[in-house]
Amino acid sequence: MSLGFKQLLDFKSLVFKKGLIVNMAKDDGFTLEGKVVECLKGSKFRVQVNLNADKTAEVICTLGGKIRMNNIRIIPGDKVDIVESSADVSKGRIVWRYR
Questions:
Q1: What number of other Cβ atoms are within 10 A of residue 83's Cβ?
Q2: Are residues 31 and 11 in contact, defined by beta-carbon separation less than 8 angstroms?
Q3: What gap in Å lies between CA 67 and CA 76, rounded to an integer?
Q4: Which residues pair with 57 in a beta bridge?
Q5: Burial 11-35 (b: 16+ CB within 10 A, else e)
Q6: How many CA atoms lie within 13 A of 46 on its CB side?
Q7: 53, 32 in Cβ contact below 8 A?
Q8: Per-residue pLDDT in tens (0 to 9) along the chain, 99 residues
Q9: ∠44-86-95 over CA atoms, to 5°?
Q10: Which CATH superfamily is domain 25-97 in?
Q11: Which of 3, 16, 60, 81 fits a disulfide with 96 by CB distance 3.0 to 4.6 angstroms?
């Protein structure tokens, strides 16, 4: 069942009148530190994250809002902070680039 635009607006106004908030916060994931390994198509990056002394994982990341808005360039070898998605731990968002 799909809702029309007017029905969707009515539903949103009903939700806000009742005090129910249904949208998730963006910061539901957890922050990790990693190193950019490869630049992929569509402003995506492969980031290597050190989980502990001998374990590493690779995460596919996109750029966070402030980084995209301020045109901060990311190149392979950069040290970055990422926020992993709580739904899928193989995907994340780059939120900070260290100098």
A1: 19
A2: no
A3: 16
A4: 49
A5: eeeeeeeeeeeeeeeeeebeebebe
A6: 8
A7: no
A8: 444 545 544 544 544 544 444 444 555 678 889 999 999 999 999 999 988 778 888 999 999 989 999 999 999 999 999 998 877 888 999 999 998
A9: 45
A10: Nucleic acid-binding proteins (2.40.50.140)
A11: 81
Calculate ∠ Cα 67-68-72, nearest 5°.
55
Instruction: Please say whether the beta carbons of 63 and 75 come within 8 A.
Output: no
Whole-model pTM over 0.85: no
* Helix %, strand %, coil % of the chain (to 5): 20, 40, 40
State how far the alpha carbon of 7 is from the alpha carbons of 13, 20, 33, 43, in Å. Answer: 10, 17, 43, 35
Paired tokens of 87: 């739904």
Which CA distances in Å does 89 have to 15, 49, 50, 57, 98? Answer: 30, 12, 14, 10, 22
